[in-house]
Amino acid sequence: MANTDAVSVRVFSLNCWGIHYLSKHCCQRYAMIGDMLCKEEHDIVLLQEVWSEKDYIFLKKKLACSHPHSHYFKSGVIGSGLAIFSKHRIHDTFLYRYSLNGYPYMAHHGDWFGGKAVGMAILNIGGLIANVYVTHLHAEYSRENDSYLPHRVVQAWELQHFVRHTSGGADIVILGGDLNMHPQDLGNRLLRSYTGLRDSYLETAKFDGCENGLTLIAENPFINKKELVPFEKGIRIDYILFKGSSKVDVSCVSMSTTKGFVPDQPFPYSDHEALTAELRMESHALTETVRDMQSKQDPATGNVAELVDIVTEARTEVKVGLHCAERMRYTATRIGVMGLALLCLELAIAAVPWLAMGTEQPFPRTSFYLLAALCFAILATTFLLYIFYTMELKSLQGAEDQMRLAVGSLQEKLRGFPLAQPNNVQQRPPEGEAEQ
Amino acid sequence: MANTDAVSVRVFSLNCWGIHYLSKHCCQRYAMIGDMLCKEEHDIVLLQEVWSEKDYIFLKKKLACSHPHSHYFKSGVIGSGLAIFSKHRIHDTFLYRYSLNGYPYMAHHGDWFGGKAVGMAILNIGGLIANVYVTHLHAEYSRENDSYLPHRVVQAWELQHFVRHTSGGADIVILGGDLNMHPQDLGNRLLRSYTGLRDSYLETAKFDGCENGLTLIAENPFINKKELVPFEKGIRIDYILFKGSSKVDVSCVSMSTTKGFVPDQPFPYSDHEALTAELRMESHALTETVRDMQSKQDPATGNVAELVDIVTEARTEVKVGLHCAERMRYTATRIGVMGLALLCLELAIAAVPWLAMGTEQPFPRTSFYLLAALCFAILATTFLLYIFYTMELKSLQGAEDQMRLAVGSLQEKLRGFPLAQPNNVQQRPPEGEAEQ
After folding, report:
1. Least CB-CB distance to B394: which of A6, A79, A425?
2. pTM score of the predicted model
3. Looking at this predicted complex, what is its ipTM?
4. Cβ-proximal residues to B293 (8 Å cutoff; 6+ apart), any chain
């Protein structure tokens, strides 16, 4: 059955900017999004920042006919903000919550409360198994002084791990979402090189949308132009990525983005531009051996050396994060110790008049209690911070360990060491028995 | 190549009970464990409760010759306690942290601080790809009144999800660890039915160990016999599970456990018994179509009805957990509101003499500050608890949503609705195109 079956799939992705009371015209925009999705009837709709479950339920009702299958991924305090709507039956879902996602005390950035994650849904599209991923990584608030960079790199690392390990049985893989990374950013290179995922904007045969595929543009009325500096025209941080398998070839037929406005509407759908990609999947048959080899082979085999460089770069970034987290934990410990010392000092000062049986002036009672309350507040806060930074350190160390292992494994590959491939069975005597 | 290659693998699993200062003879026991592992030379060693990284490093040095490859999984505040040592190269590792894992304020139980997780390592054993999992679920402190049951059920649910979705490319799957569940417990049935994993104790051709395969036994000198009641002889909560694939048949040749003591040693390795299983893997070739069908088919297809019952039971348990978490969050909110009311009342009482310009007796200053400090402490604590319970609720709701989806999907299967199988391509017109 060579190239007999061709299936076409339209994928939509949008960061909905659904923060009630903070995002402008939230309800009206959701109504607009619902109308458009109902009309456009994309096969797969991947939404981010649907922070309120009520909005998800609103869309679910609105799209009941066009997209009968949907899933809302719950995580963190507010939720993950991730939702998927599909024309095709969703057979299974799975959520991976990133181990690092900002700091709870940076409440004005809010990322920590969102419980950023990657959601997976397994669909059956025309008899093919499609693993569809939707994700939203930690925002970049300052490009020059990006204190969240190690967190975002670890998120990208975990994302590529999750996609690689869970897509073993898939015929096609589709990933959409707001990666909060420019096309050549470290995390993006890590993700694409490791997984072999292809960028629909770069691969498309036909493109209609913003210049350079930008998805956060100066023309969008919801955008504060100052925040885009030094990228005056805008940045590209939203993506639809895809790859096929040994059985299915996938190509991007066309791709489009909105352009900062919606015809006949007073404002755009969101502060981000919406992405639509049309993917064409063609099944083909291969001989058993070739298929085995292809399916087990790392898609990145061809550029292992480049991958070693990227992982090494990521490891350096994680080490910077480790250094920062260690310093923060040290600071928290030091302040905690100072709080404890202050409490001891206070108790000692208060004890002196008591021991001197009234010959000394007593410690003013009000000041005593106020100071004690301050000390306890310092101790409680620093204790919580210590626990939080310890967890951050463990996650960073874990990622660094995995990266070291990965570099080692890749270097073995470069040296020509045979890696896990089932066809090795025939070439080599069984290791297990030999070593018993 | 029918039944040409046979590889044998010896797998070891032990909960090391490595809590320094609390566990008895911790250092001596690690030395004993190291000596034994060095001598026995198992192919794969799966350890749990290695809480201190120093102990892992001690074992790593000791096993440098016998087990040159190892990985320590970091997570949570203390760590996940999970470690793997292997004679075969570890190509990749991945960690999934369970979304629910007890409560931080239950510090005497300590599970929350451990960051319970499932660690995966991909090995190449005699040319076969082995996905090896090591895990440790939340402990059961009281069987009659087990407030952690919903958490453990969600952990088992996430574990089966993780194993199923990540083992797509594996030739064999091995899972070892302390599941903290009896053989017929809900979580255990959920895990085994969904993944198709087989219990080496039940499958073994030859067994040498404790009666009924018990792994927490009354004869072990570290065990408090009162805690085992009503299971006087002990319980079986540690497992080595395995399954093959469409290409490899796996069988358990022999299995053994320690029996509460170690010959020529003053005490056993741990409060748990150690498990050793010898697995025999035989590669075989199948026709392409049969392989495709087997690899894509759910191992549980045969007993879908049973699976529906199990998932429904699990869903009920998760709903109980949801109800509890909602009640706890409501209690926290109520106490918080009471703290706020108390603060307002205090401020009002203090304001009266001030407004009456000295005609009323003033609020004693010390009492004022003490009461205010108490109010703030209540507000801060209930705020943190509110956030924690909200996160718990989100995770429970997420699991419940997935379970509802799973039951729906299984029921469709029962009704004979065609599920995702690549060979459907030939039988049906491509859905995607028809719906465009």
Report:
1. A79
2. 0.87
3. 0.85
4. B421, B423
